[in-house]
Design goal:
Keywords: Signal. This protein is of the alpha+beta class. The chain is about 40% helix and about 15% strand. Strands 3, 4, 5, 6, 7, 8, 9 and 10 form an eight-stranded mixed sheet that branches. Strands 1-2 form a two-stranded parallel sheet.
Length: about 375
């Protein structure tokens, strides 16, 4: 399992050889005091069933005693960026202190002057490939695109992207967000395109749009944002979403309905999400303390409890800090062996193609 994760992340030994002392570092007493003086942290787009966020939020509050003001939990990455822009001069409850966005949104937010640098105590154990060298943004966890299937309504689950075009899946298939703004949905379109383009990343944006044009024309695509409620109700019996969200739903729904989580045979796309602090954060010290918590051993294991692969996985594994029961709950390592980690440049390219081309090529208004 450990060697497999190394292979997925394409890490060199130098990237993961952080000392135990660094990994165990704690935020300073001065930072803790300053954060407690501010008293509040404002977050955005953190649904409690996403990647174990409910437990992570409660863990942070219990440890430091701060209040968390949670804005729009179902927002997408693009919405988070717009929230910073709209609240540059607002120090009230609608101004987010921190954001959690898809990898490609980190560099663009930095270029637009919307985020500020901060390096957490465990900085050296975060792979260089997943962080900004100056500390403006840093990867925190990742998953792969999967099919979440309501087994009461779908007797034979699709095994690959091409299966979704079959007539038996009419009016069943949904994205987990708006592909014009949400990273998860953009990644779903890209993954379908990667499969259709035979693994050619450069052609996958256009191929993904073509796939969804056909899916929509056949009547198989449902222009509704897929999540656990419409899945259970039968509105969106098949949802294309990150594996950790699907696995979390499987637990939460507890067999009502039974849920199958399928990692497709081709077009297996991994998505890294990154954290950053708003350049206009009303509570900058609380924001920094939040980052310290997320990148601590406790915070990172919180992601694993929510079926996400924490960005410091290799460091935690090397130091024997991952409980076996958490490893046992993950899907088999073999399911991830074909995972593709698009580079920042590739993500920027296909994001532009998909977000700008969705309306004209596919023409389905996802809500």
């Amino acid at each position: 399992m450990i060697s497999h994760m190394r292979r997925l992340l394409s890490l060199s030994t130098a990237m993961v050889m952080a000392s135990t002392a660094i990994a165990a570092a704690e935020p300073s007493a001065e930072l803790i005091a300053a954060a407690k003086a501010e008293g509040t942290l404002t977050t955005i787009a953190l649904p409690h069933d996403w990647c174990g966020y409910g437990g992570v939020i409660e863990g942070f509050k219990a440890k430091y005693g701060l209040t968390i003001n949670e804005l729009n939990p179902d927002a997408g990455s693009g919405d988070e960026i717009e929230a910073i822009k709209a609240n540059k001069d607002n120090k009230g409850d609608q101004a987010p202190d921190v954001i959690d966005v898809g990898l490609s949104f980190g560099p663009s937010a930095k270029a637009d002057g919307l985020i500020q640098p901060y390096k957490v105590s465990t900085w050296d154990s975060i792979p260089d490939t997943a962080k900004d060298a100056e500390g403006y943004w840093y990867g925190d966890y990742y998953g792969v695109m999967a099919f979440e299937v309501n087994k009461d309504l779908v007797k034979e689950s699709p095994k690959d992207w091409a299966d979704l075009l079959k007539p038996e899946f009419a009016n069943m298939v949904a994205l987990a967000g708006d592909p014009r703004t949400a990273n998860q949905a953009i990644s779903g379109v890209f993954a379908a395109g990667l499969s259709g383009a035979g693994g050619d990343v450069a052609k996958s944006g256009e191929a993904g749009l073509a796939f969804f044009k056909e899916l929509n024309a056949k009547g198989n695509f449902v222009p509704v944002i897929g999540k656990s409620a419409p899945l259970a109700q039968g509105t969106t019996p098949i949802i294309l979403r990150w594996d950790y969200n699907a696995l979390s739903d499987r637990d939460t729904l507890a067999g009502n309905p039974p849920v199958d989580v399928v990692i497709p045979e081709t077009g297996v796309v991994a998505g890294v999400y990154v954290q950053a602090i708003s350049a206009y954060a009303p509570h900058p010290n609380a924001a920094k303390l939040w980052m310290e918590y997320l990148y601590s051993d406790e915070g990172q294991l919180g992601w694993l409890k929510g079926y996400c692969h924490p960005i410091r996985f290799n460091d935690l594994a090397k130091n024997g800090k991952i409980p076996q029961d958490l490893l046992d709950k993950l899907p088999p390592a073999a399911a991830y062996e074909k995972a593709v980690f698009p580079t920042l440049e590739q993500q920027e390219a296909y994001k532009e193609v998909i977000t700008k081309g969705w309306d004209t090529v596919v023409g389905a208004n996802v809500q």
